[in-house]
Amino acid sequence: MPRQNIIEAAKLSDWINKESVLYATDTRNGKHLSIRIRVADAAAVITHGDDVIFEGRDLEAAAEAFNDAW
């Protein structure tokens, strides 16, 4: 019997594609500022309120974008 992909077997594909880990959070100018790391591709997503100000895997650029939002 062939081995099944554990992620598919556990039906985790949708969860992994949507899940993120909150790394840092703050409030600036009345808006929520956060860094999240997406589980699916390890990309940082930085939001300020509803605006995405950075999205990518360059963590130095992510930290710079977070600091610039202050």
Beta-strand content estimate: 35-45%
Number of strand segments = 4
Question: Percent range for helical residues?
Answer: 25-40%
What is the count of helical runs? 3
Shape: elongated
Radius of gyration of CA atoms, rounded to a whole number: 15 Å
Describe this structure in words.
This protein is an alpha+beta fold and 70 residues long. It has one domain (6-68). Helix content is 29%, strand content 40%. The chain contains 3 helices and 4 strands, in the order ααββββα. It has helices at 6-9, 13-18, 59-68, and strands at 20-28, 31-38, 44-48, 51-56. A 4-stranded antiparallel sheet has the order 1-2-3-4. Strand 3 (44-48) and strand 4 (51-56) form a beta hairpin. The longest helix has 10 residues, at 59-68. The chain starts with 5 loop residues before the first helix and ends with a helix. The model has no long low-confidence stretch (mean pLDDT 81).
What's a concise summary of this model?
The protein is 29% helix and 40% strand. The protein has 70 residues and is of the alpha+beta class.
Helices and strands in order:
Layout: H1 6-9, H2 13-18, E1 20-28, E2 31-38, E3 44-48, E4 51-56, H3 59-68
Antiparallel strand pairs: 1-2, 2-3, 3-4
Give a quick set of tags describing it.
70 residues; four-stranded antiparallel beta sheet; elongated; 4 strands; 3 helices
